[in-house]
Amino acid sequence: MTNVVEFNNVTKSFKNFSLDDVSFSIKKGYVTGFIGANGAGKSTTIKLLMNLLRKDSGNITIFGLDQDKHNQAIKERIGFVYDENCFYDTLSIRELRKIIAPMYQKWNDNLFYKYLDQFSLPEKQPIKGFSKGMKMKMAILFAISHDPEFIIMDEPTSGLDPVFRREVLELLHEIMLDEQKTIFFSTHITTDLDRIADYITYIHKGKILFSKEREELLTEYGIVKGSNDLLDRDTEKEFVSIRKTNVGFEALTSCVKKTKDIFGDEVLIEKPSLEDIMYYTNKGDLTCTL
Ligand SMILES: Nc1ncnc2c1ncn2[C@@H]1O[C@H](COP(=O)(O)OP(=O)(O)OP(=O)(O)O)[C@@H](O)[C@H]1O
C-alpha cells in the first residue's frame, strides 16, 4: 500500500510545547481522521505538513517527494481547508475565483461551477455576510476545484450544525468514490469519524500514540467492567486508565487479548467508541505496548 505522506522523526518546539519525534504515515486512497485533545498538536502537525511552519528536525515526504525540495509541485496536488477564514471578506466568490484560479495549473472551472451549484452558494455576494457553514463550504469549494489528489482539512466540521456537517461528510464520501484520492482531516467530533474514517491517527501531548486502521483499533481496545476487588497494583497496570465507583470499575484496555488472559470471565469487555479511547487516554498514561 502506498503512503501519500511520511513523517519521519519530525520535531518542532515552541516555548511551552513540543512535537516530539513524530513519525507516521498517511495511506493513499483512504480517509484518515486526526484526533487529539485541545492543544495536543493537531494544527501544528497540519501546518508542518503544509510547510507553513519550519520543522526543527526530521523530514516529511509527500507523494514520495521531499517537502522542502518540491514545495510548489506538492502544493499543486493538495487541497487545503484551514479552520479559520483566510479569505478577504469584502470580496465575493466570483472575485476570489479570479485571484485563486490562476494559482493552479490544474484549476477546473467545470468542477468549480458544479460544486458552486451543489453547495447553493451565492457567487456575487461579499463573503462577510456568509454564515459559518457557508464559509466552510466556500473554503472546501476553493480547495477542491483544482481536482487535488490529497485533501487536508483542519477541523472542517467544527461549529457546523448537524445538517451542514452531514453535507460536508457526504461530499467527502463523494470525493472518495475516486479511489485515487486521499483525505486527512482533524476533528474533535469523533462520531464523524465513525461515518467516514478508514484510519485514525491519534496525537497526545505532542506524541503520536497510534496511527491505525479504525476497525483494528476498535478490536484491540476495550472497555472493561468488573468488581473493584479484581484491582490491585499489578492488575491496574494493565489499563490505560480506570474509573472506580462504589459498584465496580470501568477501564480502558489497549490489549483486549491480554485482558482476557488475565481476567477470563470475571470481567465484561465491551467495544469502545473513539470518544471512550480519547477520554481514558487523556486521563491516564498508556501502560500496554501499542
Ligand atoms: N506559534 C506558536 N508559538 C507558541 N506556541 C504555539 C504556537 N502554535 C501553537 N502553539 C502551542 O502548541 C500547542 C499545540 O497547539 P495546536 O494548535 O497544534 O493544538 P491542537 O491540537 O490543534 O489544539 P485545538 O484542538 O485546540 O485546536 C498549544 O499549547 C499551543 O499554545
UniProtKB/TrEMBL annotation:
PROSITE patterns: ABC_TRANSPORTER_2. InterPro entries: AAA+_ATPase (IPR003593), ABC_transporter-like_ATP-bd (IPR003439), ABC_Transporter_VariousFunc (IPR051782), P-loop_NTPase (IPR027417). The keyword Transport applies. Residues 5-230 form the ABC transporter domain. It holds the Pfam family ABC_tran. Keywords: ATP-binding, Nucleotide-binding, Transport. CDD domains: ABC_DR_subfamily_A. This is Vitamin B12 import ATP-binding protein BtuD. It comes from Neobacillus rhizosphaerae.
